[in-house]
Amino acid sequence: MENIQLVASQDSINSVVQNNTVNNNTQTKKRKGRYLAWQIAPDLGSSFKFAWQGVTYAFETQRNFRIHTIMTIVALTLAIYLKVTTVELALISLTCAMVMVLELLNTALESVVDLTVGQNYHGLAKIAKDCAAGAVLISAIASLIVAGFILLPHGLDLIVSI
């Protein structure tokens, strides 16, 4: 008799799970924005869409990300104008990308910390945010040094030839 009750209970659980899944899918389709954060992207296109939403969010809300984007465009444009080698262009691209990736991670970490501590001050939250910002700062300095080593000689050669 217990086995029959267990099967009936399992059927009831499956029914509830199935109903909740249908309801969640319906609610998801009704939303104009993103899928619920805990859901897995249904396809590769959605994954790229969500990733691009993260980049867009950072660009729209983070002043430093916009500055890094502009500086990347300037550095790459200058590198192309000065006719640097492909390896040099790759190094500049990679260091600029590193700065932007760290800025995105910094934004994500700050959001999670803010979600956790809310409007309250917490010393560990400050440390987490400051260390993440420090990582971005160090990568930006490294990127400037790399760009300087690569672009300055080409720029000086251009000035001398004029």
Explain what you see:
With 162 residues, the chain is an all-alpha fold. It has a domain at 55-161: Helix Hairpins (Orthogonal Bundle), CATH 1.10.287. The chain has helices at 2-30, 44-61, 63-81, 86-117, 123-161. The radius of gyration is 25 Å and the shape is globular. Mean pLDDT is 84; it is low at 1-8 and 26-32.
The overall pLDDT, averaged over residues, is 84
The second-level CATH architecture of one domain is Orthogonal Bundle
Order of helices and strands: HHHHH
* Main sheet attributes: strand count, strand direction, barrel closure: none
3D shape: globular
**Gap between N and C termini, in Å?**
97 Å
Percent in strands: under 5%
The multimeric state of the shown protein is single chain
Computed over alpha carbons, the radius of gyration is: 25 Å
Q: Helicity, in percent?
A: over 70%
The CATH class of one domain is Mainly Alpha
Features:
162 residues; Helix Hairpins; 85% helix; globular
What's a concise summary of this model?
The chain is an all-alpha fold and 162 residues long. The chain has helices at residues 2-30, 44-61, 63-81, 86-117, 123-161.
What is the strand and helix layout of this fold?
Elements: H1 2-30, H2 44-61, H3 63-81, H4 86-117, H5 123-161
Helix pairs in contact: 2-3, 3-4, 3-5, 4-5
